[in-house]
Amino acid sequence: MKGVVIDDKALLMAENDTVATALDDLEAGTELPVDTDARSDDSATGETGGASSRVVVLEEAIEFGHKIALADIEAGEKIYKYGEVIGVATADVPAGAWVHTHNCASTRGRVDREADDATALGAGGDPR
What is the CATH number of domain 4-106? Predict the structure, then answer.
C-alpha cells in the first residue's frame, strides 16, 4: 500500500495505521468512509473475512495536516502512522478525534526512552 486518499479528505499511509492525515481543514461532523480488510477466520464456516466499510465521523474540527483517529484508541495503546509506531495514547481517543500532543506521546526521535527490544538505541543496535 502506497497510501490511500479517503474521500479527498484524508490520507491513510499504511493499512495497519490507526490514524490518517487531514488533507484540508475539516469540520466536526465530517464523515470519512474507511474500508477495512477483515482477515479474521470463521472456524465454524471455514470462511475468511472480506473487505467491509464503516464511517468515521469527526468528533471535532481538524486542521490540514493533523492526525485523525480511525478507530477507538485506548490510553497506553500504540498509535500507528506510515505502518510504524509513532506514539502512545496518553488518554482514551475516540474514533474521529484529533490526535496530537494532548493525547499522544511521541516515540519518534526519542533517545531518552527505554528500548522495547535488543536492537534499539542503547542496546548496541542500529538506531535506524
Answer: 2.30.130.110
